[in-house]
Structure formats: structure tokens, C-alpha cells
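FAQ: What does the model actually see?

It sees only this:
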Amino acid sequence: MKGFEMKMQEVREKAKALGLKKTFGLSKGELIRQIQRAEGNFDCFGTAKDFCDQLQCCFREDCLKPLVPKTN
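And it is asked to produce this:
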């Protein structure tokens, strides 16, 4: 999905659906990495430079988006 970014509330809902507990106070990246582990994937969110071979990861677009915000 091009341009899709999962909001923190959606990430929390996904964590809850997976039965993850003690997620309050975690950053979005930390929580996503816990979800990735729970799903049996590499917990690599936010570590890719320019390429990611985790094509089935639902966080892939969010992970690979540019870190520098766009200026008008």
C-alpha cells in the first residue's frame, strides 16, 4: 500500500490482538518490533537503510519512509 502509515492506535490494536501485554510506554518502533517477534518475523523495524527483503511485513512502507520530514 503506497503512502500508508500505521497510526500508533492501530499498532496498539494489533499488539492487543496478538496477546501482547505491557505495551504502555513503549515507543512505536519498540512496539512494532515486539509485534514482529510475536508474528515470527525479524524484529528489524527502523533498521533498514535503503532496502528491505521482508516483503510480507505489514510495517514495511512505514519502516522505509524517509526519516527526514518533507519541507514545503
